Amino acid sequence: MTMRRTLFAGVAVLSAFALAACGTTEPAGETAAASDGSAVTVTDARGVEVEIPAGATDVVALEWVAVEHLQTVGVVPVGVADAAGYEEWAGTGAPLEGDPTDVGTRVEPSIDAIAGLAPDLIVAVAGRDDAAYTDLEAIAPVLVLQGADAADPIGTMFDDLRLIGEATGALDAAETAIGAFEAHLEEIATTVADAGIGGTPLAHMDGYENAGQVEIRPYAEGALLPAVFEQIGFTNAWAGEGDAQYGLGITDVEGLIALPDDAHILYMTVSSSPDVFTEQLATNAIWTGLPAVQAGSVHRLPDGVWLFGGVSSMTAYADAVVAALSPTP
């Protein structure tokens, strides 16, 4: 299995489940605390009340977005699922801090490795079978983030960050990061307007090879990436539907014919993963015949920006999109 297929499986295992509830937090100032002040109770994406020791610092993150959220509020995880993969796929937009222990894959974390760290808290993302939490909850409290919700992708990202902030006693840091992100988007929206590129239709997609065939994963309405680039003045060129959690669609190369002629195609990969757009599709007549390809409007964005990440990743993504679309002086 290629790295890209492994990463796709990591996301697919999350998006394959129906969403029972969105992650919520108690209103500020109303967080339930134990009578001795030693714990805080928050409600996670499962609707479960999770009691967490006050000032939890030894935290294990089982998804990369959880790693980023923790670091955003000043908590350096002691354990990270697939730490090497994080550094490759997310380390530019939100560099990995500290020297966390690798605790297995995001799909199959190691219970023994996690137990060996004796964490205060384990952070996961919605999509796992409820039974998967049993062994983890025998080690430490498990906080489940929503991770994504196509009904409100940016709002869900903020809610998860606030939930992490509340759970770790760093809600102020979460609010500060959210404010800085919103201000940055407003600033670069002005840049987009001034450059005369507002309204440009963009289609962000992943490409991977499956049994010798190229499959395309477009980011539909409801995905986080289009929500971000729409905030700064662009439009989403992909009209197809995506799944209810991550807003991800799937098509073949022929399906890309539906893109408008003035669309720009965006994608990201890493050096260890095949670039199907420049390799497998280089001689594909349908691909090379697309108006975007013929016009030179296909843009590989910088490596290492996690496309399902938090405010740091999405800041780096928005900056990369503007840089790719801005006219050359």
Please tag this protein with its features.
single chain; 329 residues; alpha/beta; five-stranded parallel β-sheet; five-stranded mixed β-sheet; 11 helices; 16% strand; disordered N terminus; signal; TAT_signal; Siderophore ABC transporter substrate-binding protein CdtB
Q: What is the 3D shape?
A: globular
Count of DSSP H/I helices: 11
- Which strands sit side by side, in order, in the main sheet? 6-5-4-7-8
Mean pLDDT: 90
Secondary structure tally: strands: 13
- Main beta sheet strand tally, sense and closure: 5 strands, parallel
Low-confidence stretches: 1-36
| Class derived from helix and strand content | alpha/beta
Helix content: 25-40%
- Beta content comes to 15-25%
> C-alpha Rg, in Å?
20 Å
Please write the string of helix (H) and strand (E) elements: HEEEEHEHEHEHEHHEEHEEHHEH
Measured distance between first and last alpha carbons: 42 Å
Family: Belongs to the bacterial solute-binding protein 8 family.
Organism: Agrococcus citreus
InterPro entries: ABC_transptr_periplasmic_BD (IPR002491), Bact_iron-sidero_bind (IPR051313), TAT_signal (IPR006311)
Signal peptide: 1-20
List the helices and strands and how they pair.
Layout: H1 3-15, E1 32-33, E2 39-43, E3 49-53, E4 59-61, H2 64-72, E5 79-80, H3 83-89, E6 101-102, H4 111-117, E7 121-125, H5 133-137, E8 142-145, H6 153-167, H7 171-194, E9 201-210, E10 213-218, H8 224-231, E11 235-236, E12 264-267, H9 285-289, H10 291-294, E13 298-300, H11 311-325
Parallel strand pairs: 4-5, 4-7, 5-6, 7-8, 9-11, 9-12, 12-13
Antiparallel strand pairs: 1-2, 2-3, 9-10
Helix pairs in contact: 2-6, 6-7, 7-11
Keywords: Signal, Transport
Domain Fe/B12 periplasmic-binding: 58-329
Protein name: Siderophore ABC transporter substrate-binding protein CdtB
